């Protein structure tokens, strides 16, 4: 058995802990770049805490997926403004943008030197300037992952900047920040979190450390996602979802993902109006089913099949539950949470061939428990349209 586990230097978890940010940030200097999501007014409290601790912030708002050009530009601004550290405050897009800027502030050259596929894919040489990640959704787990997903609109692609040197210096996970998320966003980000717990658990790179996190995370998400969707102010449900999201991030960063994310990357690049969480939510039950069928046919003794039974038992809370029951449970959950089908975003059967081709090259696909054939991938996609 071989595995490695790396994460943020410090993880600070608990309702209301945003108020500690002033003291936490003081350690890194007095000039911060604060990267926020679309609604920057949500960061007012954060900015006030920083200012009352003698830190002067420069703010940058990210609308939608962060684009390569925007990251380049903002890195220049942060240099001129002499920012010593970067705080990301928001969903996955804001955190990934902040993570990428923190990396580029420490490393020479331009962003394209380091991104994969559309760039030169060189390895980052220096540790990022201090990066503090504060998620305001319970979904991506980006606060503890070592990659930033960036959009290249001219290539219609999503590409990653990745390095263990990009891990956050501090992750502040305060579930209270997620209480005013609207139901649709709670649903899609929550199902992304659940996907990011199931895929590493059944995948080919699972290890005992990530297994423990996945089991605990799946149990909490199963118990709380409907409750958080139904009543955003349900504190214990929000807390459980924040833990599930964090554990999903820890698991995926150290054990990889699977076919849901293998599809989600190329799909997000081609259809930039389709949010990552919504894509994963629509695909999860179909991919679970395709994997289970393929495993039964070609690897009936596989440990992954036993793991799909265990996933079902955790989701449903019954020791007699089987893999198929788990698929049905997830299908119902997606229905109850009003997850739109992929066709809603303009993804049609004519796109299936290109999506299958691109997804087979995706790094997430390599950790899927079994190599799905192009026909199986195409059928799985069609069922989610
Ligand atoms: Zn995801």
Distance between the termini: 39 Å
The total count of helices amounts to: 13
Low-pLDDT segments: none
- Helical residue percent? 40-55%
Helices and strands, in order, run as EHEHEHEHEEEEHHHHHHHHH
Bound molecules: zinc ion
Provide the structure class.
alpha/beta
Number of strands: 8
Sheet with the most strands, sense and barrel status: 6 strands, parallel
Mean pLDDT across residues? 96
Radius of gyration: 20 Å
Shape: globular
**Beta-strand residue fraction:** 5-15%
Instruction: Kindly report the spatial arrangement of strands forming the biggest sheet.
Output: 1-8-5-4-2-3
Give the SSE map.
Layout: E1 10-13, H1 21-26, E2 31-36, H2 44-51, E3 56-61, H3 68-80, E4 85-90, H4 92-106, E5 131-135, E6 147-152, E7 157-162, E8 170-173, H5 183-202, H6 208-230, H7 235-255, H8 259-270, H9 276-298, H10 303-316, H11 323-336, H12 352-361, H13 374-384
Parallel strand pairs: 1-8, 2-3, 2-4, 4-5, 5-8
Antiparallel strand pairs: 6-7
Helix pairs in contact: 3-4, 5-6, 5-7, 5-9, 6-7, 6-10, 8-9, 8-12, 9-11, 9-13, 10-11, 12-13
The chain binds zinc ion (ZN).
In short:
With 385 residues, the protein is α/β, with parallel strands linked by helices. 49% of the residues lie in helices and 11% in strands. The protein has 13 helices and eight strands.
Textual characterization of the structure:
The chain has 13 helices and eight strands. It has helices at 21-26, 44-51, 68-80, 92-106, 183-202, 208-230, 235-255, 259-270, 276-298, 303-316, 323-336, 352-361, 374-384, and strands at 10-13, 31-36, 56-61, 85-90, 131-135, 147-152, 157-162, 170-173. Strand 2 (31-36), helix 2 (44-51) and strand 3 (56-61) form a beta-alpha-beta unit. With 385 residues, it is of the alpha/beta class. Helix 9 runs antiparallel to helix 11 (323-336). The strands form two sheets. It has a six-stranded parallel beta sheet with strand order 1-8-5-4-2-3, with helices on both faces. Strands 6-7 form a two-stranded antiparallel sheet. Bound molecules: zinc ion. Zinc ion is lined by residues 192, 195-196, 261, 276, 280.
């Amino acid at each position: 058995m071989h595995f490695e586990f790396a994460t943020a230097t410090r993880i600070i978890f608990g309702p209301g802990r945003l108020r500690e940010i002033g003291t936490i940030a003081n350690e890194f200097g007095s000039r911060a770049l604060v990267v926020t999501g679309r609604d920057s007014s949500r960061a007012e409290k954060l900015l006030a805490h920083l200012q009352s601790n003698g830190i002067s912030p420069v703010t940058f708002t990210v609308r939608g997926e962060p684009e390569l050009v925007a990251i380049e530009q903002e890195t220049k601004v942060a240099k001129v403004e002499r920012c010593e550290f970067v705080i990301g405050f928001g969903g996955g897009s804001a955190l990934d943008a902040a993570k990428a800027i923190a990396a580029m502030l420490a490393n020479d050259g331009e962003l394209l030197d380091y991104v994969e596929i559309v760039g030169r894919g060189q390895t980052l040489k220096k540790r990022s300037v201090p990066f503090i990640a504060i998620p305001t959704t319970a979904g991506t787990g980006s606060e503890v992952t070592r990659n930033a997903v960036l959009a290249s609109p001219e290539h219609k692609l999503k590409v990653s900047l990745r390095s263990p040197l990009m891990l956050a210096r501090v992750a502040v996970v305060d579930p209270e920040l997620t209480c005013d998320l609207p139901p649709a966003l709670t649903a899609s980000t929550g199902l992304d979190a659940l996907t990011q717990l199931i895929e590493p658990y059944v995948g080919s790179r699972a290890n005992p450390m990530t297994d423990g996190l996945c089991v605990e995370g799946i149990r909490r998400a199963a118990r709380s996602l409907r409750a958080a969707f139904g009543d955003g102010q349900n504190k214990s449900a929000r807390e459980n979802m924040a833990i599930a999201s964090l554990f999903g991030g820890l698991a995926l960063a150290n054990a990889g993902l699977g076919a849901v994310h293998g599809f989600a990357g190329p799909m997000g690049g081609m259809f930039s109006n389709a949010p990552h969480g919504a894509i994963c939510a629509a695909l999860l039950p179909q991919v679970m089913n395709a994997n289970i069928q393929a495993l039964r046919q070609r690897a009936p003794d596989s440990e992954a099949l036993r793991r799909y039974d265990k996933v079902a038992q955790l989701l449903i809370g019954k020791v007699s539950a089987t893999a198929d029951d788990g698929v049905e449970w997830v299908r119902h959950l997606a229905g109850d949470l009003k997850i739109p089908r992929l066709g809603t975003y303009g993804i049609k059967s004519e796109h299936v061939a290109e999506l299958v081709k691109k997804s087979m090259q995706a790094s997430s696909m390599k950790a899927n428990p079994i190599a799905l054939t192009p026909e199986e991938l195409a059928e799985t996609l069609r069922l989610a349209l």
